[in-house]
Amino acid sequence: MAAKRRNQIVGAWMARPIELMESPAYRVLSLSAHRALSRVEVEYAHHAGQENGQLIVKFDDFAEYGLHRSATGPALAELEALGFIKITEHGKMARAAEYRRANKFLLMARPPEKKGPKLPDGWRRFETLKEAETVALNARKGAGHSAPSTSLT
After folding, report:
1. Contacts of 104 (CB under 8 A, 6+ apart)
2. Which residues pair with 85 in a beta bridge?
3. φ and ψ at 96, to 5 degrees?
4. What is the average pLDDT across 51-74?
5. Which of 44-48, 63-67, 128-132 has the lowest mean pLDDT?
6. What is the pLDDT of residue 111?
């Protein structure tokens, strides 16, 4: 009789490489950026790990996930500056619903849907917490939000 397996994973799940989670870029992410990254990863999982680069996450999707509306733009700017995501198509805001478009995202730690040039190192390029922290802070400020610095060095 076969032994019953104790550690079965049930349902959809998303793994992050330990290298990513130990990186300086990941360690300086704001809470809003963590939530935004998780929401894009949820969308990737909903697409069964397909269509990376074409992942549509609406502003309302971020809000429903718990990201404050005023924090969405700075969080996405931070994630893009630190190399976790790439916005492959910028959305368009319009009064009439038929003219609105959501952003399309590419998760840089996952393979792109279309074959093409190798993805840049993104989050791997940061060697120190200070360097990553500076880039994250500047990205948040550039997006119209000045979050308090939480120095980790």
Report:
1. 53, 54, 55, 56, 87, 88, 89, 91
2. 107
3. -85, 130
4. 94
5. 44-48
6. 78
Quick one: tokens of 120?
Answer: 């840049």
The answer to whether residue 87 scores a pLDDT higher than 80 is: yes
Residue 101: phi and psi, rounded to 5, are: -140, 140
Domain ranges of the chain: 19-113+122-142
**Tokens found for residue 78:** 């931070």
Lowest mean pLDDT among 32-36, 91-95, 140-144: 91-95
**Predicted local distance difference test score (pLDDT) of residue 152:** 40
CATH annotation of 19-113+122-142: 1.10.10
84 and 39 in contact (C-beta within 8 Å)? Answer: no
Q: What pTM value is reported for the model?
A: 0.82
